[in-house]
Sequence to fold (335 residues):
Amino acid sequence: MTTTALEVRLASRPKGWPTEDNFEIAEVEIPTPGDGEILVRNVVMSVDPYMRGRMNDVKSYVPPFQVGAPLEGGAVGEVVTSNSPDFAKGDHVLHGLGWRDYAVVNAKHAVKVDSTVAPLSTYLGVLGMPGLTAYAGLLATAEFKPGDAVFVSGAAGAVGQIVGQIARLKGASRVIGSAGSPDKVKYLTEELGFDAAFNYKDGPVADQLKTAAPDGIDVYFDNVGGEHLEAAIDSLNLNGRITMCGAISQYNAAEKPTGPSNMIQILAKRLTLRGMLVGDHKALQHQFIKEVAAWIASGELKYSETIVEGGASQAPAAFLGMLRGENTGKMLVKF
Fold:
């Protein structure tokens, strides 16, 4: 039996766009779990946009990654050794210590998942944090109502693909999405049922959004920020709502980005802009799983995953690819 494994460490803090040089692949001894802990061999891990913010040494809603220490993130793995009565060898668990082959996890911070109910990867995507983000961000934060016209930026990503479909299933009058390639635009309209979609690289977002939503929008689910946010403010109808979930267009900016130039419209239109963190919506977890799992089972809700094979050593490349928008749906790393 092997006694060593790989882990990915933050080698240096990125300035602007991260590169492979900001990561270190280290070989370490497989750790031994203590009382109340389990040793997990990771099977699949997640790379997510929020991780870019944790690479900066700034105060935020979650502590920054430390230079020289292994990165963290959602993962699903198999229990190899258990020192907890709550888990047995062979159980599959969801936990927060990805970016490594093996992890010692406090049993209190692990959740048992069942591969016979849904593929293990879905617990990191459509039935996991991104799915709950979409569900809560649309229904609770944006206070979606049947008949609302909804615009989703980054709509082919892990969160966006779910937002648009939930809006459609809940009775939206129109669902519009933006994405970064013709294939993704086609995926949104032909496979996910969006009423309209456009490639934001084809021209000004404001112009394309007005064409796609000639009667305006009532809800904007923001995953991108920047030009998309400004365009949405222009198109929002009276008493429109914005869920501010992410701003991936700004995560790698070397200089401080400028804000939208049309903020006065927030006053004139009586708009609501509300930030959201998925951790604030744990009370919706049971309702979310019940409803979304039923939609998946019936075929009413579809999802895509982009899988990168190769385990920890390929995690940096997968992360960088996700930031460049190379994924459709959830970007995952398989061990």
Q: What stands out?
A: The CA atoms of residues 132 and 282 lie 9 Å apart.
